Amino acid sequence: MYPLFSNKEKKNSQEQLEKEALDPQRIPNHIAVIMDGNGRWAQKRHLPRVVGHKQGMEVVEVITKAASNLGVKVLTLYAFSTENWKRPVDEVNYLMDLPVKFFNRFVPELISHNVQVNVMGDESKLPKKTQVAVHNAIEQTKSCDGMILNFALNYGSRTEIVEATKKIARDVKDEQLDESQINDEIFAKYLMSEQLHPYNDPDLLIRTSGEQRISNFLLWQIAYSELVFTEVYWPDYKPQNLYEDILKFQQRNRRFGGIKA
Ligand code: IPE
Ligand code: IPE
Ligand code: MG
């Protein structure tokens, strides 16, 4: 007897079912992802770590499209932390080259999906070619008004908070701001995430690869985010995994310190 569905059709129908299980009215506006596990994915296959990063780049494209199709407003992806400079120079060089490769290949597709590119982090420390690739992608997608694809590149949350504090101190000194005005809302305006206004804070934070830590990511902004940790390595992460993680988000009860609705 012939199977009714091929494996591919079965997979697609399963993916479709996961998608249909979601409440379209409660898709998180801002999803942030700590894309972790590239190295272990490669090592498990006896491949160099950078092969994991390459595969991870392909996954960025697929997940970007899936998130955009769901109506997500901001997708923030942690691509390189301020601590990742500690890695071997060859790996760092490869990671600095990835945005060049990614944008060269995918900008036309991002435009066709109406996706706007944004970057947060200290760009000045990036190699020139990476800076150019980033600036071109931002420029080429600036009139897209669908989802914002926000890369955290050479990003560290403590540095972001320290820099915001310095700027506030300068503004107070220059009498642009009075100390009595400083509150949560004003403070948030000095953070890099202000570029994402009004979706500065992630509703959902996903970390892949089984690690359960934040690794200096969006410390201020995740005060009330729902956290989902999944065992899947980033290069294996599929739209179906995204739908499952959003479903977990939809099953949570967000109270923000209040009582159950
Ligand atoms: C995440 O994968 C990508 C970056 C940090 C750039 P890793 O490279 O951290 O992969 P693991 O955690 O070593 O498996
Ligand atoms: C966090 O992953 C940074 C990125 C995903 C870019 P790491 O792999 O660098 O985090 P740790 O070292 O395991 O905390
Ligand atoms: Mg890691």
Automatic annotation (TrEMBL):
In which family does this protein belong, per the annotation? Belongs to the UPP synthase family.
Question: What is the free-text note on the cofactor?
Answer: Binds 2 magnesium ions per subunit.
Q: Which cofactor does it need?
A: Mg(2+)
Chain intervals for the UniProt region annotation (Disordered): 1-22
Task: Give me the residues that bind substrate, please.
Answer: 37-41, 49, 53, 81-83, 85, 87, 207, 213-215
HAMAP family per record: ISPT (MF_01139)
Q: InterPro entries per the record?
A: UPP_synth-like, UPP_synth-like_CS, UPP_synth-like_sf
Specify the superkingdom: Bacteria
Q: Which residues form the active site?
A: D36, N84 (proton acceptor)
One GO BP annotation is: polyprenol biosynthetic process
EC number per UniProt: 2.5.1.-
Q: Which residues bind Mg(2+)?
A: D36, E226
Q: Which SUPFAM superfamilies match?
A: Undecaprenyl diphosphate synthase
Q: What does this protein do?
A: Catalyzes the condensation of isopentenyl diphosphate (IPP) with allylic pyrophosphates generating different type of terpenoids.
Q: How does the record describe its quaternary structure? A: Homodimer.
Which GO cellular component terms are attached? cytosol
Q: Where is the composition biased (Basic and acidic residues)?
A: 7-22
Main enzyme class: transferase
| Protein's name in the database | Isoprenyl transferase
Listed GO MF terms: ditrans,polycis-undecaprenyl-diphosphate synthase [(2E,6E)-farnesyl-diphosphate specific] activity; magnesium ion binding; manganese ion binding
Keywords from the UniProt entry:
Magnesium, Metal-binding, Transferase
